[in-house]
């Protein structure tokens, strides 16, 4: 099993989790400090975002461990890419592979993956507050088994925001309030019964899903 790691020296490495060593040929370099990484579900594509506003896609050969740089997208020059989350398909209605990106632009960005080299095409964006903090977002784990498709993100307005990415109008479907500092990260358990959110003050809140 392997994992992608990045560092402040602009390097991306694929690591063998069993040995803790870098995979031979599994290294490359970005234009800035590496802040976010995400593999696709099959493990053949890796995206990496840096502090200069770029997202790079890499082809990963699982047989040899070789990492090959494929495409580069400048999300916004100088705007740090703080979160990347990949999804093979968003919902029953939207079966294209997708990427969810935070990039200090006061909005959450949803991209469509349009080819086997990881080329990205902006699908839509959602308003949040993020201009300086390393805010992160996620796809809801069970989205493909229900109507609609939700994503969740932190925000500098001290709230947790939920958006339905397939809803044409009024995409915001929920907002959780309880933090007293910018919300930096969010994470569901596997069945979505619990959501954890953390903020810049060090507080973690665990939210329980309301039972119907």
UniProtKB/TrEMBL annotation:
Domain of life: Eukaryota
Pfam families: WD40
The keyword Repeat is assigned to this record: yes
Positions of WD repeats: 176-212
Secretion signal, residue range per the UniProt entry: none
Keyword Nucleus on entry: no
UniProt keyword terms in alphabetical order: Repeat, WD repeat
InterPro entries named in the record: WD40/YVTN_repeat-like_dom_sf, WD40_repeat_dom_sf, WD40_rpt, WD_repeat-ST_regulator
Gene3D superfamilies: YVTN repeat-like/Quinoprotein amine dehydrogenase
Name of the protein in its database record: WD repeat domain 13
Organism: Gorilla gorilla gorilla (Western lowland gorilla)
This protein's encoding gene: WDR13
């Amino acid at each position: 099993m392997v994992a992608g790691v990045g560092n402040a020296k602009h390097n991306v490495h694929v690591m063998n989790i069993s040995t803790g060593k870098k995979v031979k040929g599994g290294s490359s370099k970005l234009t800035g400090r590496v802040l976010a990484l995400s593999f696709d579900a099959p493990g053949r594509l890796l995206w990496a975002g840096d502090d200069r506003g770029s997202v790079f896609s890499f082809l990963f050969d699982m047989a040899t461990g070789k990492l090959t740089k494929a495409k580069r997208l400048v999300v916004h020059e100088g705007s740090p890419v703080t979160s990347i989350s990949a999804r093979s398909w968003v919902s029953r209605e939207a079966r294209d592979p997708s990427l969810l990106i935070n990039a200090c632009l006061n909005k959450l960005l949803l991209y469509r993956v349009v080819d086997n080299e990881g080329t990205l095409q902006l699908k839509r964006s959602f308003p949040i507050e993020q201009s300086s903090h390393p805010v992160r977002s996620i796809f809801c784990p069970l989205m493909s088994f229900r109507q609609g498709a939700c994503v969740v993100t932190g925000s500098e307005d001290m709230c947790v925001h939920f958006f339905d990415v397939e809803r044409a109008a009024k995409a915001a479907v929920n907002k959780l309030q309880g933090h007293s500092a910018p919300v930096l990260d969010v994470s569901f358990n596997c069945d979505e019964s619990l959501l954890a959110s953390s903020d810049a003050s060090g507080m973690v809140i665990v939210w329980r899903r309301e039972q119907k």
